[in-house]
Amino acid sequence: MLDDGDCGGGVPVSTTAVQDSVERLTSSLRAHGVEGARVALVLGSGLGDFVDRVRGARAIPYASIDGMPQSSVPGHAGKLVVGDVGGVRVVVQQGRVHLYEGWSAHEVTRAVRAFGRLGVHALVLTNAAGGMKRAWPPPTLMRITDHVNLQGRTPLLPGEAGSGNPYDAELGAALDEAARASKVPLERGVYVGVLGPSYETPAEIRYLTAFGADAVGMSTVCEAQAGRAAGMRVAAISCITNLAAGLSPGPLNHAEVVEVGKQASQRFCDLLEAAVPRLSARVA
Ligand code: HPA
User: Fold this and answer.
1) Which tens digits make up the pLDDT trace of 20-70?
2) pLDDT in tens, 182-202
3) Less packed terminus of the chain by CB within 10 Å, N or C?
């Protein structure tokens, strides 16, 4: 871990090392026949069931892919699934790695960059998140309209300017349309990415709420930035699995996050299934 530089620590980033690691992973994915996908999806904690909606699915364990970081967090299966959804070729990451496990921002985003190298047009990121609005009972689904990166890390390389808001308005509209078509309620809001692994304190949640965040989680922001830098258009959905610290009665725990994510599974899968062809229709 941390083998290719960590922008937040004291190790200088070697652009060549990062690019080489992405190239190595891309070659391995090609060798596994992962080519031709138009849409890539990353499934967050407890949201892995979407792979059951993939037709002609072929699963490739991360362990057999050279250069693919593997998560040790429960609820993250560690498989790449290729197949079709609504007639669109997709590649689905069932499980992701996190900064709080000790991986660098470049490792966390390596697969996303590889998807870009393989010619994927649209990247859909999903996650479990804590909600900051009492009016949104878990499990509420929220499409991310913008984010605040409080992870103290960037996946961008020197010279990659970044793109401002990485979430694509047109793809966001496609998600809204899919929500209406599948009759799945979908809120909109700002996601704040924190490092974790501890959940926030009530004081931190008051602070995050004061500057405009609607949901908080420990992933997604680096992947969104890297996906955009890699030339893909990006959409993202949070499944609000709990009210954030101080808004809910008891202490938060990961098992509850995964469990509530599973309660949202049917709706979440219906929404994504309706979304994939609509997203694909909007990208080149
Ligand atoms: N905080 C941070 N990350 C999370 C939460 C939370 O409350 N719920 C799920 N992921």
Assistant:
1) 999 999 999 999 999 999 999 999 888 889 999 999 999 999 999 999 998
2) 999 999 999 999 999 999 999
3) C
Domain 7-282 has CATH 3.40.50.1580: yes
Strand 55-61 and strand 79-85: the pairing is antiparallel
DSSP letters spanning 225-255: HHHHHTT-EEEEEEEEEEEPTTTSSS---HH
21 is an active site residue: no
Ligand 1 midpoint to CA 199 (Å)? 6
Query: pTM of the entire structure?
Result: 0.93
Q: Is the peptide bond before 197 cis (omega within 30 degrees of 0)?
A: yes
DSSP string, 32-98: TT----SEEEEE-TT-GGGGGG-EEEEEEEGGGSTT-----STT---EEEEEEETTEEEEEEES---
Residue range 197-231, pLDDT digits in tens:
999 999 999 999 998 999 999 999 999 999 999 99
Binding-site residues, ligand 1, Cβ < 6 A: 128-130, 199-200, 216-218, 241-242, 244, 252, 257
244 Cα–ligand 1 center, Å: 7
Pocket test for ligand 1, best of 151, 218, 256, 263 (most atoms within 8 A of CB): 218
Is position 218 annotated as part of the catalytic site?
yes
Map out the domains of the chain as residue ranges: 7-282
